[in-house]
Structures are given as C-alpha cells and as structure tokens.
Amino acid sequence: MTTAESHRLRADEVLDRARAENRAALIAYLPVGFPDLERSIEAARILIDHGADMIELGLPYSDPVMDGAVIQQAAASALEAGTRTRHVLQAVEALSGRGAAILVMSYWNPILAYGPDAFARDLAAAGGAGVITPDLIPDEGADWIAASERHGVDRVFLVAPSSPRDRLEHVVSHTRGFVYAASTMGVTGTRASVSAATEGLVERTRAAGAKNVCVGLGVSNGEQAAQVGAYSDGVIVGSAFVRALLENQDDDAAARTALAAVADDLRAGVERARA
User: Fold this and answer.
1) From the centroid of its chain, how far is CA 239?
2) Looking at the annotation, which residues are catalytic?
3) CA 182 to CA 158: how far, in whole Å?
4) What is the set of domains in the chain, with CATH numbers?
C-alpha cells in the first residue's frame, strides 16, 4: 500500500462526517492545470483549508459539452498548456491526506483512452476516492463499473429533474459514494437562483434508494448554499471558484484571497442551513 492509499478518504466517509455535524458537505470543483498545474493544486489546498470537504478535480477535455463558459475557458487554457491525465493523477496524490475526499470529474473518452482498469488502479494508488462521469450512463459503463469495483473506487452518476422513478432506481443501484443531482437541465455555471425542482429531485432520488444525494449546477454563493444544503447531503460548486481564478490569474495573492472568500461564504452557508 502506498502512502497515498493509506490516507484515502472515500466520499461516503466525508458525507457521514458532515451529517454528524448536522450540515451538508461542501464540494468544490477546480480544473487541473489552470492557471498551471502547481497553482491549481495550491488553489485546491486553499479550498480545503477554508472548509471544502471534498474536491472534484476536473480533467480538461476538448469537447466539454456540459461545462459552462467559465469552466470551458479555464479548461481550454489548461489543455493548451499541456495538461493531461497524468497531471490529474499527480494532483490527486498531492492533495490526498489533507482531510478531504479527492475525486476526479472526467468525460468518458479520456478514461477510455487511458484504460478503465488502469485509471481506477492508478487513481486509487494516488489516494483518489472516485470519479464523476457526467457523460457516462450506467447502461454503457460495464467496463468502468467492473474496474471501479476491483479497485475500490467510487463511481458517481448523474440524475436530472426529468429522470423518472425507474431511471432513478437504475442509476442509484449502480452508483457508489453519492448520486449527483443536476439541479437544472443544461450546462454548468453560476445562476441567480437554483431550480425549484431540485428539492423534489433529491427527495425522489432518496426514495429510489440513495443514501447520499449531492446537488450541483448553479450554486454560487452562501445564500444558495444554505438553500440547497437544507435538503441535500452535499453542495457542489464549480464556476464560482473558477471565476475567482480567472479574474485574478495574473495576481497570485489576489487569487488566494478571492478563493478563500468564496469558500468561506459557501461554508458559512452550509453551516447555517440547518441551524
């Protein structure tokens, strides 16, 4: 067992910890390699130090169909700078053991190119908890399901407001760690409000058998985090953090301050949600 494996936190452990504290978990997304590899790792460390329970490390991809403009811009820059799958695994290893569960969010093609079994093996060895695959459905994921089982890697599939009961049950039965509830149909990005259908989706997903349901797509501030954290097990935030990096990419000190401020606001939101 490597040092990274000995410190490997799984998603359900972190969610159980947050539940014991009577709050939702704060889950933060950042693309690896933006503004560069080392600064993306440092950004994730800042978010952990300011209350993120889980980090989703984005594997930059050339056809990010679910990503909004902010994340697309950062991911495109990371790709142009040469960020590849091996760098994401390096970031996982650098961040493991700091008290947060470390997951990778990746479209399916990069994992397929790397090899599903090899990716699951190497992710586990690096200390990673699991993988979120936004464009892979369980029906087409037999190789990934088998590989993740072999190597003890969480696999996170998505459900949407349009998902009927039988579909929710199917996704839940194949998911490990948590179910990712997409609060809106469409691409990611900050929004002025979170869809009113989200709470119902969380309730329906739990009724379909899910222990942990985390909500993403749209949460950008503490007020929204409190709203979503009142009924979900985890609040997922991406674009708000990436925007803080984009707006301050030429000033490291300002970027650190901005990231910390956003994280503090969001963590305060999830903490007061059930107070």
Assistant:
1) 12
2) 56, 67
3) 7
4) 3-157+219-272 (3.20.20.70)
